[in-house]
Specification:
The complex is a heterodimer of chains A (230) and B (114). Helix content of chain A is 38%, strand content 21%. Chain A is built from eight helices and eight strands; from the N terminus they run βαβαβαβαββααβαβα. Chain A has a seven-stranded parallel sheet with strand order 4-3-5-2-6-7-8, sandwiched between helices. In chain A, helix 7 links the parallel strand 7 and strand 8. The termini of chain B are far apart. The chains are: A alpha/beta (230), B alpha+beta (114). Chains A and B meet through strand 1, helix 6 and helix 7 of A and helix 1, strand 1 and strand 6 of B.
Chain lengths: 230, 114
């Protein structure tokens, strides 16, 4: 008779390595008083265009920079360089998402004290990035009007891991008969209370409101950091 | 598809614990939340691959599914969800974003011969 199997209880988070690095990144960001925003979306949702406009429009008032994750090319970094902000590409090879260690490595020689905002563009993917904390203060999930209103229902996990939803390419809404109310109710179904912006990086509609929101969050972060160091 | 890297992390965690305790592992027990962003079937097939050439080769992965549990502000208590596509209290229908359980991705036990 074979002996009964015995269970040795342990309790270990599988992603503890990533979470530890994310925590130390978060502390570093906090010390440097830089507000860090990450972007997740499916491929082709307009992330790069949106980020390019964000960097360009924030530049006159703020010191901004970006890290861009991509599977193979450096096209995105080249496009973003047009904003004249410091941009660094993280080529992930076959990996479908960014991990905290990649962000840490990319930022090794950066002086974060010189920044107000740091943006991290994840690889275009609505599944895998949801599991990995990158130490960011704010995670934006982008949804373009051309993708259809039901994306939130298909990918509830990523909407749950994000803080704010951005509906992009709103200038094309009429052409694709995008139903804004349906999209909004789908977002609210998977994430009640989620703050949602609708905008177009091309026509600039809605950009100002979103940029004001970022500016306000930076002020909040800095006053929180100040009161905690007193 | 990030299940292979998740599977490799599971093997790493289990191997580290097994070495510390000097035990031979037959199975690894994992709690997997419905919002962990990991596909169970894919993880199971990746696990076998990840075990190759490690002391865990031939071991099994036993997955316990963890459903999403939310806090209902109206009932003031824990409630389950009827679907991850609708975050509201299964009893009274009040929407709630407060997730209490369902994001777990943790190794909870190692099975060894007694």
């Amino acid at each position: 008779m074979s002996p009964e199997p015995r269970l040795v209880e342990i309790r270990k988070n599988v992603l503890k390595q990533n979470d530890l690095i994310a925590r130390s990144l978060r502390e570093r960001f906090r010390r440097a008083r830089v507000f860090v925003v990450s972007l997740v979306s499916s491929p082709g949702s307009g992330k790069t265009e949106f980020l390019e406009k964000t960097l360009t429009l924030l530049q006159p008032r703020y010191r901004v920079a970006a890290l861009v994750g991509d599977l193979a090319t450096e096209n995105d970094a080249e496009r973003l360089a047009r904003s004249h902000a410091p941009v660094k590409q993280i080529t992930t090879g076959t990996l479908c998402h960014l991990e905290a260690a990649m962000v840490q490595k990319a930022l090794e020689d950066w002086d974060l004290n010189r920044l107000d905002f740091l943006f991290i563009e994840n690889v275009g993917n609505l599944v895998c990035p949801s599991s990995y904390d990158l130490g960011e203060d704010l995670r934006l999930v982008l949804l373009s009007v051309t993708e259809g209103e039901d994306k939130p229902l298909k990918y509830p996990t990523i909407f749950n891991s994000a803080d704010v939803a951005i509906v992009t390419k709103i200038d094309l809404a009429a052409a694709v008969e995008f139903d804004w109310h349906l999209a909004l109710s789908n977002i609210q179904a998977v994430r009640p209370g989620m703050l949602t912006f609708k905008l177009s990086a091309k026509s600039m509609q809605g950009m100002e409101e979103y940029l004001e929101f970022l500016a306000m969050r930076l002020v909040e972060l800095r006053s929180a950091v100040c009161s905690s160091c007193k | 598809m990030h299940e292979l890297s998740i599977a490799m992390s599971i093997v790493e965690v289990a191997q580290e614990e097994a070495e510390q305790r000097g035990i031979q592992v037959n199975a690894v027990h994992l709690r997997l939340g419905a919002l962990a962003g990991v596909v169970k079937e894919s993880l199971l097939s990746c696990y076998e691959m990840a075990c190759g050439d490690t002391p865990l080769e031939g071991s099994r992965l036993v997955i316990e599914d963890v459903p999403v549990v939310v806090f209902c502000p109206a009932c003031q208590t824990r409630r389950s969800l009827s679907s991850t596509q609708l975050f509201c209290c299964a009893e009274c229908g009040t929407p709630t974003p407060q997730v209490l359980e369902g994001k777990e991705l943790e190794v909870v036990a190692l099975e060894i011969e007694g």
